[in-house]
Amino acid sequence: QVQLVESGGGSVRVGDSLRLSCTTSGRTLSRLNMAWFRQAPGKERDVVAIIWSAVSTFYADAVKGRFTISRDNAKNTMYLQMNSLKPEDTAVYYCAGAEEGSKWSYWGQGTQVTVSS
Q1: Which is it for strands 106-107 and 111-116: parallel, antiparallel or unpaired?
Q2: Is 86 exposed, middle or buried (0-12, 13-18, 19+ CB in 10 A)?
Q3: Which 3 state secondary structure label does DSSP give 44?
Q4: Is the CB of residue 35 less than 8 Å from the CB of residue 49?
């Protein structure tokens, strides 16, 4: 059974930084494509960043230049470094994993990020 566990959320001020972590178990991280999604109150869950097993990355326009997704396969952990945080970044952040060529099947429980001015 694949499990994803996020950590690192919290309440910060505008302009601060946070680093989220997502640790996997039950499946070697190197075999998964991984992503961060977020869901703000009353809104749909949207993709924030994706990192494929070959370390190619994608970022949503809203976070490009401020967020960095990375992975440490040896630690089975994925990260999201979030800099220059804005109030609109406030959301529950979820990590997700997918087998190659498959949909996002594995999800963490989510971690709250709150950015206040």
Answers
A1: unpaired
A2: middle
A3: coil
A4: yes
Would you say 18 and 9 are in contact if contact means Cβ atoms under 8 Å apart? yes
Instruction: Read off the DSSP letter of residue 103.
Output: -
pLDDT tens digit sequence for 47-66: 999 998 666 999 999 999 99
100 confidence band (pLDDT: 50, 70, 90): confident
Alpha helix segments (H runs only) across the chain = none
How would you classify the pairing of strands 10-13 and 111-116?
parallel
For 22, 23, 32, 106, 107, the CA distances from 26, given in Å and listed in that order, are 13, 10, 11, 11, 13
Residue 54 DSSP code = T
pLDDT of residue 78 exceeding 80, the answer is: yes
| Dihedral sign computed on CA atoms, order 84, 50, 39, 1 | negative
Mean pLDDT, residues 59-78: 96
Across 17-76, where does the E strand assignment appear? 18-25, 32-39, 46-51, 57-59, 67-72
